[in-house]
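A reminder from the course coordinator: this example appears on the midterm review sheet, so study it carefully.

Given structure:
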C-alpha cells in the first residue's frame, strides 16, 4: 500500500474548507485504488492536509493525472506549492 500526504495553505475559512471537502467526498469515493482518504485540519492556521491510502503506486499515478486531481488547487484556493510526501506502507497496526 502507498500513503501520500499533501499539505497546503488555503485562502478559505475553516468552514468553507470543510464544506468543499463534504461536497467533493462523493467524487473521491469513486476513485479506483483509493482505499481511504483523511481530510485533516493542521494545528497551523489555514493549513490542511489530505492523507491518501492507495492500493498501489499505479493508482496514485493515475489519480495525479486525472481531471479531479487537477481541480484540487482551485477548489481549496491553495496558496503556493503544496508539500507532498509519498511512501510505502510496510506494516499496519490494525487490518
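Designed residues:
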Amino acid at each position: 500500500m502507498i500513503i501520500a500526504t499533501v499539505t497546503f495553505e488555503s485562502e478559505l475559512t475553516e468552514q468553507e474548507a470543510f464544506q468543499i471537502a463534504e461536497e467533493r467526498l462523493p467524487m473521491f469515493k469513486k476513485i479506483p485504488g483509493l482505499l481511504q482518504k483523511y481530510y485533516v485540519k493542521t494545528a497551523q492556521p489555514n493549513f490542511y492536509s489530505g492523507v491518501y491510502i492507495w492500493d498501489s503506486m499505479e493508482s496514485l499515478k493515475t489519480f495525479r493525472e486525472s481531471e479531479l486531481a487537477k481541480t484540487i488547487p482551485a477548489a481549496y484556493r491553495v496558496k503556493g506549492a503544496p508539500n507532498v510526501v509519498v511512501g510505502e506502507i510496510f506494516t499496519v497496526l490494525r487490518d
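The chain has a mean pLDDT of 96. The longest strand covers residues 78-88.
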